Amino acid sequence: MADRKASAIWEGTLKTGKGNMHFAGYDGPFTFASRFEEGKGTNPEELLGAAHAGCYSMALSAGLTEAGFPPEKIETIAHVSLRNVDGKATITRSHLVSKAKVPGISVEKFQEIAEATKLGCPVSRALGGVELSLEAELVD
Hints:
Helix content is about 35%, strand content about 35%. With about 140 residues, the chain is α+β, with helices and mostly antiparallel strands. It folds into two domains: about 5-35, no CATH class; about 45-140, K homology (KH) domain (GMP Synthetase, Chain A, domain 3). The strands form two sheets. The protein has a three-stranded antiparallel beta sheet with strand order 1-2-3. α2 (about 45-65) crosses α3. The radius of gyration is 17 Å and the shape is elongated. The two termini are about 35 Å apart.
């Protein structure tokens, strides 16, 4: 297994400041507006969503392959919800929408593996205090 790292720098006050998040070859600016409003830039929730979508897609591929149904393609979108809970900004939900092209698998078997994967991927496990939901669909 591996250890990974990412970094962030924030300059200024919460509302007027600005920041930059960095990992591997990615550099992403973020601000109060990009996190709590609809401003330009990224935010921690989008990056968490990308991590969750990527992790789920890889884990689903592993589960399907292990069951004898190697997938051709898996596309996953994570919708991460940031809400005010007891006066504090809180990540409350990650809703995965996944579409997979998997030759030879029944819808029932696909749904069984997809649901098991929802709770089993490492990012899902790290999000233990967050509501996790899933829409999984087989596509041609």
